[in-house]
SnoaL-like domain-containing protein (Flavobacterium profundi), 172 residues
Amino acid sequence: MKKTLTLTLLLIISTLSFGQTNENQNEKLALAYMQAYGKWDFDTMKTFYADAIHFEDPTAKAAFQQDFVFDGKENVYQFFKTVFKDKFKNDKPPYVNFVIEKVFTSGNHTIINSTFECVLPNAWFQEKTNETILVAIPFVTILTIEKGKITQHIDYGNYTKYFEQIKAQVKK
């Protein structure tokens, strides 16, 4: 009986430790992914994707009246790669960053609260400005990680703040 109790306790402790280790690994993977995201390094981001990754940003759909839903490694990669296509040298803003404020992981989900900072292309605002347009908006990213790969990436951005910041910087 004592031996059975000891084995049961060891099994419970090892199971709990494995869960913690897996969560720690998922969080490290998520932070490395976000570092690549903040560098606008989509080639590196792609290495984190599961083949059947799902990406969406329901808040962007509401803000821009178009779907921001993509499935599959290549489709997600191409979406990100073309966001600023032909708007900046090498299709990359001169300044882009995610300032990570809080991260927590529960099981396969890592939730990242951050501020997305980015210079926007002047071409988006036509003749209205020659100035640099900078936005810094609250962002939440939820990543689902299974077997060391991201299977789901959901973004939620505060696009109300995004449009307010643009309006304050663009000449009327």
About this structure: Residues 13 and 46 are 35 Å apart (CA to CA).
